[in-house]
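Hi everyone,

Forwarding the result from last night's run.
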Amino acid sequence: MKLWTSLLAVLVLLSAAGIAKAAPVDPAADAKNKSEENADNNGTEEEGESNTSAGEEERTGTHSWDAPAIRVEGHDSDLREEDRIGSYGMPRWAARRRFNRCRIYVRPEGQFEFEFWSIHEVPRRSNHGSEAVGNEWQFEAEFGLPYRFQFDLYLIFEKSGNFGALEPAEIVTELRWAPLDWGVIYTNPTLYLEYAFKNGKANKIEAKVLLGDEIVPRVHWGANLVYEHSLGGDHENTFGLVLAVSFTVIDEILSVGWEHQTEIEDSAEDRGTYTDSHITGPSIQIRPLPQMHINIVPLIGIGGHSPGMKLYMVLGWEF
């Protein structure tokens, strides 16, 4: 328990540091905007000073919602969420969590976000296992780092049914790296590595390839290729595919979509004999405030080894 208390303190301190220290104005985005202003500034000297002053004020934003847009050749959209921002030239929608189960790319450098997840799994009676609802609560801190890196830290608690004890389940560290700026290659491939410290169970390591991009304006997609291995116990291997698509209904306010996750798993005792699980369902994201998002994703199980339903609710706040 002392270890868990110490790690919780680390999570709180890292979160406080991210909140307290805002990132500097992105130099690449700043330079591009200065160049655009100089090219467009053909008025009188007084008008030029006024435009520069206005531009300087506009460029003070460092968050996904107020970072200045940069011009990218061949890219034009009437949607503000599809403006390109930051030194990686990524769209605003990709600088935030758009999907729930599916992750894409990395956060812009200097960005910090905190999320609270509430996850509830209803078992399928035909599984002949526990019929208690599995409850999980996750606290996640996300840090955008330079050179297209991202570091995340999660603290997860679990509770079985209405009367089970609430217990710390795991602490997870995550590192992502995108080799290229956004748009250099369609799908924007990103590498993901995760290590989970389990409470009373074998630790796990997970690797993913994250893919995501735009299909047409308003329509975005993501896909994750997943491999997870348990470092003890039955040494389970899990192979997964996560797919997601979303449609922007109201720019920067409302999007709807669909998400799907398939997993197959085997153990050291019976390698090559897999059990499979499939969950699929609609997703909705609401952004009542520029820095806030709410994701609601009810996923329905398909097949005997799948849960009856798994409900994800996420509240995120960008600082």
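The two ends are 30 Å apart (CA to CA).

Cheers,
N.
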